[in-house]
Amino acid sequence: MFQGGYQGRYLRIDLSQGKVKIEKLDEEVARKYWGGRGWGGYLLLKELGSRVDPFSPENKIFFLTGPLQGTLTPYSPRFVILTKSPLSGTFTRAVSGGQWAPELKFAGYDGIIIEGRSQKPVYIFIDDEKVEIRNAVHLWGKPTGETESLIKEELKDKTVRVISIGPAGEKRVRFASVIHESRAAARGGTGAVLGSKNLKAIAVRGTGNVEVADLLRFKSLLVEAYKAIKNDPASPARIKYGTTATVAVAHELGVIPVKNFSRGEFEGIEGLIAETMKEKIVIHDESCFACALPCGKLSLIREGPYAGTVLQGPQYETIGLLGSNCGISDIEVVARANYLCNEFGMDTISTGNVIAYAMESFHKGILTKQDTDGMEVRFGDANVLLSLVDRIAKREGLGNKLAEGVKAFSQELGREAEKFAMHSKGQEFASFEPRSVVGMGLLFATASTGANHSLGPTFREEMKNPLTGKGKAKIVVENQNSYCLMDSLVYCSFSRYGLTNLSRMQFLSAVTGWNYTPEEIENQTHRIYTAERLFNLREGFSKRDDTLPFRSLFEPMPDSPSRGNIVPLDEMLPEYYALRGWDKEGKPTKERLEELGISEFIDW
Ligand code: SF4
Asked: What's the whole-model pTM score?
């Protein structure tokens, strides 16, 4: 019996049959995996058949919260989407904030499992106990902003919370995202899986509440946490600039990617830094539900060819990938490309990568005007960038090939072209040049989703010695585990401003009445990460996939403070496996799985 936090039930919606069921959340599963990412990894192992096609009705997609959503726990208004990725074929998880997760909890559910495929476009409306699968034929083809507005109009309620896909998801662009009020659950192609199921959106209205087991303790924790957030030395810059505060420092260290990760110095960086963005386009700070650190920046382009563009962002990752990585030095162009990606429902990180990849291929003569619909696909050309964003979303011409992701496109071009295709396991690199911060290289190589920064970034911990592999395996394992904790309880990763794992767990204890020893927490986070590894092994991944592109491993960095450096992956990987309790081939041993309590999922 749950004392607080959880609603103790979730929805199972079968789109093939048009059936909705309410199921009970098993308390033992919740105690063992918490929620969000942990619960999703367990469900993927338990419910998904081996080697299913991500676009088939047999693939399932989970929208999960955890114990804290809907309470006032700082940094907790988030949900996690989990499925088998159509981009990488691995486990994938995408996270977003905003207002949707608390609303789902207020409606009385901890999560939603979607299975099957609808015959025609539909959207789901959850109105407390009433759950409907509604016609969405009139919404198909609409951008995400318009979709949200039309659904609110149709339901005659502006406060209904909506998540939706855009035309890119409908066309199964393999890195399509899910959008909620201009925020993206971006990585891994979750939007394309929704598109394959003909599911356009999920709207929620909830009028209930979430119980807290020990209200007095919870209140005193809240007071302490708000003080700690206010007093954190990094909070003021994060509130003033959001994640763009990182742009200048990342460039100083050669970390922000430049021209398809070919170098570390970018002559146009001044046009992209936080001060420039604040001065030119930011008009307002925004926050998710009840968050004390309003890191969202509402931006407006006031004049010029993109005048009237309004969006939340761009953030550091987007500036790196759609900006310097494509040779673009104008924040308004980046903002416009970001806006288009959001409206089409497309991950800005993967989009920036595939476009930069096409630009380098054109520069090298591997692609010619015959392959590019007559365009000169050159670094720094704003019109080319914006045109390719449009073509990818619509799968037109070259865009249709880029929509398959950088791995698939590079394989089509051939071996030499694969050397500078910047991905791991098919997931395009996040905005960190691993030759300049090598622990990030190990993170990209071993992350269960492929190259995703948000599975445990080590950038800050590595600042003092970013170029050596020594000691990095330990930092990567610790950070990956810490992100398992955050993603499963489901905290925002910016909760590092003012919270620690200890205070995060204190909130869990006050809300649910559950207590864990440090050893149990350590075990639990290893369990969550290892469950994702088991899923990937079952799907055919192995040690040979824990790798990086040729450029990261063999092409020395040409400039910046990391000039001459490469990622010493071979040096770091064996130590990483040992720390995880996996064998030399990166496979968890039977003893380790028994220790972690997940041997039920193995057949070796
Ligand atoms: S820190 Fe920013 S992204 Fe995180 S919960 Fe607060 S407003 Fe949302």
From this structure: 0.97
